[in-house]
Design a protein that fits this description.
Length: about 130
């Protein structure tokens, strides 16, 4: 799933020029070096960032282990299982109910696919 997410972010960079990266670690596995994905610029940024790269992934793992028992608070809620969007809102379904991970993933993929299609259409139309 992480590789697929990285490929989506790479495609987003190629089609829309949006740069990004994703860092994922398994705090409970000592040998896990983490996963870095995303656009070429995003990955290069993380690797070159002071405190980033492999040492940054290790630091993130330590942070997660240290704060594992403490509830993570966002600006809108104290629920750990529901991600917070950039604007501080929690994703919800059309009926206002909180989304489960499977539904959230499907919605994310659909949103990214629609965005990529609209960008591809615009580029074809513009360069005609």
């Amino acid at each position: 799933m992480l590789v697929d997410t990285s490929k989506v972010l790479e495609s987003l960079a190629e089609t829309a020029g949006i740069q990004s990266f994703i860092l994922a670690v398994d705090p409970s596995t000592e040998t896990d070096a983490g996963f870095l994905g995303g656009s070429l610029a995003g990955r290069a940024y993380w690797r070159d960032l002071r405190g980033g790269g492999e040492q940054g992934a290790k630091a993130f793992k330590q942070y997660c282990l240290k704060n594992e028992s403490k509830p993570v608070q966002s600006t809108s809620s104290t629920h750990r299982s529901v991600p917070t969007m950039v604007d501080g809102r929690q994703p919800t379904s059309g009926s206002g109910k909180k989304l489960d991970a499977k539904t959230l993933k499907a919605d994310l993929y659909e949103t990214v696919r629609k965005a990529l299609k609209s960008v591809a259409f615009f580029r074809l139309w513009w360069h005609g």
